[in-house]
Design goal:
The protein has about 230 residues and is α/β, with parallel strands linked by helices. It is built from eight helices and six strands. Helix 6 links the parallel strand 2 and strand 3.
Length: about 230
């Protein structure tokens, strides 16, 4: 089956893990308390704060307790959807102010452009919110890359280590799994995608192998046609 679409992870794949952990997360952590206090009355923010209360089991938590819960989740790198949504809002302000620029490896930029020009559909699947994904690519050091992508998926599609998530994404894309190539730096994610019928390729930028999957160190070494 010929590859018609490429689904890519971000962190450790298109972009440096250090950008997320050393730039984005500290920025969100530093700005979160003031952001929540300033915007708690806005419907979009209030909805996420209520979701934090629900997910934490603390339905009566006041604003300062919700802030404390969010900071605990950041410290634990918890993949909580309301946290991701709020982080995305904070990052949006940072990008708009020019304080943040999205990191995308040059080899990824070049390959994504080539694949799109060749007619392949490009999609993103990351544990970061869809908003955060669009910001990384839309405000990247290489310029606005969002026109390259046909769609974005986050944890609202399910966890990245569960095959059912990839089956849902394939259905949303409208293609059988065999026409989709998934790229990631995490073996468990690649395993889940393969279990859903997708072709897989691992990124190990520091070298090494992702067991059971073709593994490369750069996007430049990926030939989608080789996965047909």
């Amino acid at each position: 089956m010929t590859i018609k679409a490429i689904l890519t992870d971000i962190e450790g794949t298109t972009s440096a893990v250090s950008f997320v952990f050393d730039v984005l997360f500290p920025y969100a952590r530093a700005h979160l308390p003031a952001f929540v206090r300033a915007h708690a009355g806005e419907p979009e923010v209030a909805a996420q704060l209520d979701a934090v209360r629900a997910e934490s089991g603390e339905a009566q938590a006041d604003l300062e307790r919700v802030i404390a819960i969010l900071l605990e989740w950041i410290a634990a790198d918890r993949k909580a959807t309301p946290l991701k949504a709020l982080q995305g809002m904070i990052w949006q302000q940072g990008y708009a102010a020019g304080e943040l620029k999205g990191h995308v490896y040059p080899d990824a930029v070049e390959a994504l452009r080539q694949w799109r020009a060749a007619g392949l559909e490009l999609y993103v699947y990351s544990s970061g919110s869809i908003q955060a994904q669009k910001l990384i690519f839309g405000c990247s050091e290489a310029g606005d890359l969002t026109p390259l992508f046909s769609g974005y998926f986050d944890t609202t599609s399910g966890h990245k280590r569960e095959a059912a998530s990839y089956a849902r994404i394939a259905q949303a894309i409208g293609r059988p799994g065999g026409e989709i190539l998934f790229l990631s730096d995490i073996v468990e994610e690649l395993d889940a995608a393969r279990a859903a019928g997708m072709a897989t390729c691992g990124l190990a930028r520091e070298g090494g192998e992702l067991a059971g999957h073709p593994t490369v160190a750069s996007f430049a070494a990926i030939d989608p046609a080789a996965f047909a």
